[in-house]
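## Example record

The block below lists the input lines for one assembly entry, exactly as stored, with component labels intact.
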Amino acid sequence: MAIFRGIHGMLKANTRGESMAKQIFDYQNGDEMKLAVLIKSAEVRVAKNGKKFIAFNFQDASGHISAKFWDATDADIEQFKPGEVVRLAGKRELYQGNPQVKIYNMRLATQEEGNDPAKYVESAPESADDMGEELNDFIFQITNANWNRIVRKLLGDHKQAFLTYPAAKALHHAFAGGLAFHTLSILRLAKSVAEQYSSVNRSLLYTGAILHDLGKTMELSGPVSTDYTIEGNLIGHIVLVDEAIVQVAGQLKIDIHGEDMMMLRHMVLAHHGLLEYGSPVRPELLEAQILHNLDELDAEINMMTGAYQHTEPGTFTERLFGMDNRRFYRPQNGQTYPDPK
Amino acid sequence: MAIFRGIHGMLKANTRGESMAKQIFDYQNGDEMKLAVLIKSAEVRVAKNGKKFIAFNFQDASGHISAKFWDATDADIEQFKPGEVVRLAGKRELYQGNPQVKIYNMRLATQEEGNDPAKYVESAPESADDMGEELNDFIFQITNANWNRIVRKLLGDHKQAFLTYPAAKALHHAFAGGLAFHTLSILRLAKSVAEQYSSVNRSLLYTGAILHDLGKTMELSGPVSTDYTIEGNLIGHIVLVDEAIVQVAGQLKIDIHGEDMMMLRHMVLAHHGLLEYGSPVRPELLEAQILHNLDELDAEINMMTGAYQHTEPGTFTERLFGMDNRRFYRPQNGQTYPDPK
Amino acid sequence: MAIFRGIHGMLKANTRGESMAKQIFDYQNGDEMKLAVLIKSAEVRVAKNGKKFIAFNFQDASGHISAKFWDATDADIEQFKPGEVVRLAGKRELYQGNPQVKIYNMRLATQEEGNDPAKYVESAPESADDMGEELNDFIFQITNANWNRIVRKLLGDHKQAFLTYPAAKALHHAFAGGLAFHTLSILRLAKSVAEQYSSVNRSLLYTGAILHDLGKTMELSGPVSTDYTIEGNLIGHIVLVDEAIVQVAGQLKIDIHGEDMMMLRHMVLAHHGLLEYGSPVRPELLEAQILHNLDELDAEINMMTGAYQHTEPGTFTERLFGMDNRRFYRPQNGQTYPDPK
Amino acid sequence: MAIFRGIHGMLKANTRGESMAKQIFDYQNGDEMKLAVLIKSAEVRVAKNGKKFIAFNFQDASGHISAKFWDATDADIEQFKPGEVVRLAGKRELYQGNPQVKIYNMRLATQEEGNDPAKYVESAPESADDMGEELNDFIFQITNANWNRIVRKLLGDHKQAFLTYPAAKALHHAFAGGLAFHTLSILRLAKSVAEQYSSVNRSLLYTGAILHDLGKTMELSGPVSTDYTIEGNLIGHIVLVDEAIVQVAGQLKIDIHGEDMMMLRHMVLAHHGLLEYGSPVRPELLEAQILHNLDELDAEINMMTGAYQHTEPGTFTERLFGMDNRRFYRPQNGQTYPDPK
Amino acid sequence: MAIFRGIHGMLKANTRGESMAKQIFDYQNGDEMKLAVLIKSAEVRVAKNGKKFIAFNFQDASGHISAKFWDATDADIEQFKPGEVVRLAGKRELYQGNPQVKIYNMRLATQEEGNDPAKYVESAPESADDMGEELNDFIFQITNANWNRIVRKLLGDHKQAFLTYPAAKALHHAFAGGLAFHTLSILRLAKSVAEQYSSVNRSLLYTGAILHDLGKTMELSGPVSTDYTIEGNLIGHIVLVDEAIVQVAGQLKIDIHGEDMMMLRHMVLAHHGLLEYGSPVRPELLEAQILHNLDELDAEINMMTGAYQHTEPGTFTERLFGMDNRRFYRPQNGQTYPDPK
Amino acid sequence: MAIFRGIHGMLKANTRGESMAKQIFDYQNGDEMKLAVLIKSAEVRVAKNGKKFIAFNFQDASGHISAKFWDATDADIEQFKPGEVVRLAGKRELYQGNPQVKIYNMRLATQEEGNDPAKYVESAPESADDMGEELNDFIFQITNANWNRIVRKLLGDHKQAFLTYPAAKALHHAFAGGLAFHTLSILRLAKSVAEQYSSVNRSLLYTGAILHDLGKTMELSGPVSTDYTIEGNLIGHIVLVDEAIVQVAGQLKIDIHGEDMMMLRHMVLAHHGLLEYGSPVRPELLEAQILHNLDELDAEINMMTGAYQHTEPGTFTERLFGMDNRRFYRPQNGQTYPDPK
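Predicted structure tokens for the full assembly:
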């Protein structure tokens, strides 16, 4: 039985096509804006004139943008919290290379206007249905029975979170469904690698790829206003997924000390590649090393292409924290990227 | 009920006093030696004249010493394996500052002569009985019920290994009972610290100290001819003890996601202090930081005082790998160390 | 004769109990404040509206708090300098997680009101009398005559500074009397260690502990508005105390090249543990290594417990610079720390 | 016109199938050996008995193996030089985990016996013909005219070396044809990546992949007894290929300062990823980053699978220098690797 | 024929002596200022009151100074761009240790008033004529014909840029003519070194010194409002000068693979000394190592003496980014530096 | 009065010219040797056949060379100690690129034959007389009275050691008189720098250069069979010279806390440049930074040119430990180095 049957509609595709209303990145610099957005973060600060203001980060399915709310009253601060949907009027401007909104006015959206936060988060470019189906295909190819059963049990237990969580708070795939999308992207790369190099144990590589970041569902608080949980800080997603494997193996009466289980656990424990990056052991299996490389490759491509989307041809992106603060050049000619938003 | 009741005799005190026979370090340089020793390691190499020889490391309860067996036949190589007790005749010499045995002849000890390897390993300076009793006292002071039950269950399950295993293959406390002795030394330091700094959660610090290295019983192969297990390589003792905690919590119906359990797991996961040293998270609890410092302090004192024992006053020890290859000076005067052996 | 006889009253206990007046941390967020405080630091900046303001850091014996003084005139800037005691009226607020004062008005305290800066600095939790007495006990146990005489002479020469200086400008024990309190804390730990490990040369460890940071009295400017001296920058406290030992040895006709003097100098020179931390040599004596570890342990406990005091249970402290920018979790339950101020 | 037309037979397939004679790895430990091999390296040393011996590394198409030649005369040293083919009789033995030959006797092969060194080197698992054809297909897909012309001109100029050189002296793909095989493996990975991520400029990625290591043909001395050239040491393959691009662009009247040429040069200059690894600039183009990752991935898979081939199931490989001295575990079960030789 | 004949007047000496008008550093703190300056940089920001302001950096031949322009209109932003000369009225003030201008009013300079940006840049302390003549003397001493011809050709091709560009955007010798002045300073040091150490190949050292930074003329945009070019980012000045050498060698029919050409290229490629600093190879020639050391020595002296000029005796300079953020002490007495401006 | 008057003959020039006897490097590979040499080091080892041998390092004024003495008896080991002069007969050979002596026979030199070790050490290329005279000239130019007096007193106290000690045990200037020669080389460079950069305080730079390594006379055991003293290990030459300055200042009644004395002490304390290299503070004076650079420059040139002397043109030197294990290329043409010995 396929794990992901019946997830239809779990992750609504919040893409432009679905909605007639204009979204954040439908506006150009200088345009007057009038739309509903989600408050992603709201930080209260004191201006140099002694008055308070709120530094907002708004988002909808098209992306996110910052704004400053001057002379904020205590009532403003009280009502405009992260997770709220607001009706916003303002003007899009460009300062220091980054777009922001000059706020004219804003108020909380009413229930009638539709204030469901889930509709305003960025999300993966593929639907949960499609991703679930493709994942089923990969799981079907895991021929080791223990690995197959553990994958099915764990994905079954965390189905909803796995399909809706981001893969990280900020660095890469930081959008709803990002965890599943990142996992799937690695699986696709893994398939190519397994076909090209015949020594690779395909079942092991697929199992490791599917489970490697499942701990993110425990490390992160959820798809809206994502933050680290206390457990995420004190234990970390790498050990959290290992714990889940140990528990599930107990429920399924699988010997945790068998060679295949040691190999599986090694795959998830070693996937950060270096001790400095939080793996308690470095890869010591061919497939563990490959998983680490593909994880890195997909995350990096996601960070770079994401930055290119907001960069004019012939210029450099902003510095990317996850890429050692490098800037990347978007060529003038011969490019195959979509136009910057 | 005390965990360590009934362990009497488990770890026989292999100290000089028990035996009338002379031991390795009863001999001085130049002395003719005649005694029974355990083969700790035996490496076959080819001499530059093309013939094979065996590089031995012999040990008994007084310490260990190296030797070379020239022109080894295949029969010699076959019978003189690590873990065997042999009758040895030779001469103690000093080359390049280190003592070694010039072998006259050697043969396997017969059963009548007593060939029990356990009698020839170095062991902790305190008896298993005494250590077990003192550990019981510390466990008694753990007032959090979950922690107390988990400690009792885990120590109960691994009683024998915990009292007989070394704390490491080579670096520090590398002798039978070293794991328990190292644990107890940290607990004694922890007691002083908890008395001096009133904010310290004594139960947490004790629990962490007792469990922090329990995974060594899974990472290492045992007290004789100690090596790393495959599980030890692929998973490591830090995650192995975390797995044991998760399993035992399941058996005892303790919620693994409660704050106290997160704190306990953090204690063992973080005890190496730095990611580079294999901890998947750095200490983020006062007690976790203290445990790391005390673990390091006790291990370092053990390495330094061990080296001083083989160093003449007014000279430097050999370079200590575990101390960043530093040499330590043993003063001529005012010292309080015992004479070098 | 005891060094610290007659220091009675040198370091007045500035604790809450002594004074009927309310102190900074007697006020809660939202309270109107009216009290006398010391200006710890005062930085003149230009607001974005082009006018000047002063960023103050006020302190009294209960701790320190920041504040902004808007639209500062040249007269304001002239009179409100670090080291001045002022009468302050304002309101305690909380922005971005940190308490600060919204200033209503402030003026210099008159002599009648009591404008002695020494009354407004945070100070060690033990009185100078008590600390002096306990130090005498430790000195009494230094059995090497040269070390004993040097300790007595140096502490005698720097008695006042030693008992009133902080141990650092900002990192740890940054309060009046912090140097003596930090020294004493290390001595108490040293006593436990010397009792547990019989090889330790107790006299040497105590002598090193007492002198290791004495150079701070030359490196730092004093207990009020502490800064580094030029000598502190160009030479550093490690070499400054070594210089003092060399000079005093000369006065006492002690041979600086004797083994005991080399050992003592090595203790203070090596106490930072690593060359990167400013020690010109790494520890090469058992006692030097232990001193380094205990110095670190006490400093770290002080930084962590200090931060816990301003942290709500169930949350993390701010990032601690001296702890590699880590945040520490203050548990909800089972804690033994006092309530946060 | 395809570059690689007419290269037929340039790289003879030296595989087992072609020859009826037994090769090095057709013998098991303990077997008497009698075969022709190539001297890969020959180092003269002095044994501890004062006599000279030669430490050989022999090779044929099946792999390489070491051996010691005792009591070497000046005549032996003179004639048995790297690059010579010799007739060897001896016995295969296993010491310290590595196979070696115990030499009974050896002499230079005569011309009649066939002493062509090229027949005794390990070589890529695919024929030069096949590789050339597949490369042509990739070149065909480079749609930027400048890049296409430069690739054709450079490969045309270095055709023979490109198809016969190894990719490195020792680390990875260190066999005849290794450079072309490594290049092709990256191209195949690049194809999968370009299909999966639509933003990738396929022409640029292919061009960079083909040229990135072409400088190896100038840095290394050739496929037999490979060593670094002086130019390889003083300038390095990264700048050597850049120089070749600059020269060829001049010949083809292509403006070296056009954006496409800057991008191409950046691809090859940045392909080591980090300055520490010898790239004068870090990747600042999406495709440059991907090229670096795929280069690393293919090299690492080659090193790991190569080591697995000489490792028994259930044990670890030797430490791999190019993988940060890690050892890799070859599982007992579920493996898909061929049997170890 | 001398390269630098006929450059007379190319770099006008913009020193105080030439002009009767007061310059930036002729004013003291508190002085009313009235003068023409060049806009070096102009960054538009939003003040906390929501209005825009411009953060200016003004410069003339005496140095540079910052200023804030409050409540900037779109017209202000449009006209006050980097590279424009403006008439400025304001007051010199000192905040946070650094001088800045409080702007009263400013307007673009008219053509009659003289708005040639080149007159307002800081420049080398020696005239282009003098520097060119001294460079000719050094070139005359390069006895290797290939090196001599390449130097003459390259300097001839880039004469104007070489004499007018700065040596860096900000770190050291960041003034017009800085590149030539830095080159000449190294040559003078090189001459002393070559005289003192007779093994040094003087021709090689001079050639390397002259060419090592010539790539800066391609990496940087020019002497006014200097920034990095795209080519500078993607390829870097080290490889850009290597490219220029390769091209010129082709034009002059010099064999690029001769030993002398490998040595010359190695000189420029290795001059950053470490791979981490962007050199693709580390120095492996005596002269390459010396060039690296002298390059560093001259750059560091320039950074330190530049900072001393704005530092009061008895205090420390600001932290110098190029000197690992160290501050340097300017002594009270015995100094030989000019008074601070 | 000049310090170095009357040192005539202290350091006899042991150069070839003085002696009619052949020296080590007068022999070519293959030559039969017959000469007197000094035993620089003698390490007893055990050969793989179980017998002892001595690994010698012989030296005379022309350099040093290694040799192995097989089948050494206890009498051999007893008499052939470091520091003895022996009559040696053997043959010069070349193995693995390094020259060594094949020993035919050797015996202790008699008193009549001349067994003064001082005659067989390598020594500086200039005589003590000449160096002393030039040093006097430099001291004469130190215009600060305190610095001048301290230099005179310290050099006066350590005159003999200063002129005969090496500058290091092995790395650079490791020959008799090396300390003075290295000091003088730095002073000559310092003179050039002070002339080129007018801000440099010449007196300070000279004083620092003269004293910076004076602590080597306490850190090292002497010019023959040089090793580190215990004081050298535990305190280090950097602090040892600081101690000497402090003591001498006391004797001369110079205030150690005056600015000039702080500056002088900073010069010597900071001269290693980095904390990692053992300086307790980093340079924070212009002259301290320059001293560090010149110290490094002269030491590096000495290491490189020393290695070139034993390297054939067109090949690379051995790896130089003090140059990060780099090898340096000795060009075929255009070189100005003397022929290799």
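The beta strands of chain D are 32-46, 52-60, 63-69, 85-95, 98-108, 315-316, 329-330. The CA atoms of residues 86 and 110 of chain D lie 9 Å apart.
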